[in-house]
Amino acid sequence: MNNLKRLIYKSSGKSPGFSLIELLVVVAIIGILATVSVLAYNGYISSSKKTTMRSLMQAVALAETEWYTETGSYFTNTENDTCTPNDTTIEAINENLFDDEDVIPDDLGWSMCVASAADGGSFQIFAEQDNGGADDIMCLNRNGSIREAGEC
């Protein structure tokens, strides 16, 4: 019986498990796939936030039309033809145009402001990504056309 056990359990010199190299290759492949997945996910999130900001800019433009109907002038954060978007300008827009509702969230990663245009006879909405570059700027005029980056 002992000879039979030795014959069954006799090793051919290789272990029945995985080698260290095989395990390292599998871990490296999983790491590469995870990295690609995270990068794709971050790109998707960034693009959806930009689309959300475009929609919010159009909502502000509609609210501006209502504000003009009620007051005879447009709400602006500044009388200049450009402005610098920040948290304060978002609060002012939410307070004045949306009756203090949190329509434009603070945690979107984008800021917005409204500047005067055509000597107060129009407006222009500027949006800028927080900590973004020169390409992360959008603007919308009263006619509803959205331009990006160098076109603003």
Account of the protein in words:
The protein is an alpha+beta fold. The chain has a single domain, classed as Fructose-1,6-Bisphosphatase, Chain A, domain 1 (2-Layer Sandwich). The chain is 47% helix and 16% strand. It is built from 3 helices and 4 strands. The chain has a 4-stranded antiparallel sheet. Strand 3 and strand 4 (146-148) form a beta hairpin. The protein is elongated and about 85 Å long. The relative contact order is 0.12. The mean pLDDT is 88.
Number of DSSP strands?
4
Main sheet characteristics: 4 strands, antiparallel
- In the CATH hierarchy, what is the class? Alpha Beta
Largest beta sheet: what is the strand line-up?
Answer: 1-2-3-4
Tally the helices: what do you get? Answer: 3
Order of SSEs: HHHEEEE
- Classify the beta-strand content into a percent band: 15-25%
> Mean pLDDT across all residues, rounded?
88
Global Rg = 29 Å
Helix percentage? 40-55%
Quaternary organisation: single chain
Q: Can you name the CATH architecture?
A: 2-Layer Sandwich
Sequence stretches where pLDDT stays below 50 over 5 or more residues: none
For the record, give the distance between the C-alpha atoms at the N and C termini, rounded to a whole number: 89 Å
Structure keywords:
Fructose-1,6-Bisphosphatase, Chain A, domain 1; single chain; alpha+beta; 16% strand; 152 residues; four-stranded antiparallel sheet; 47% helix; elongated; 3 helices
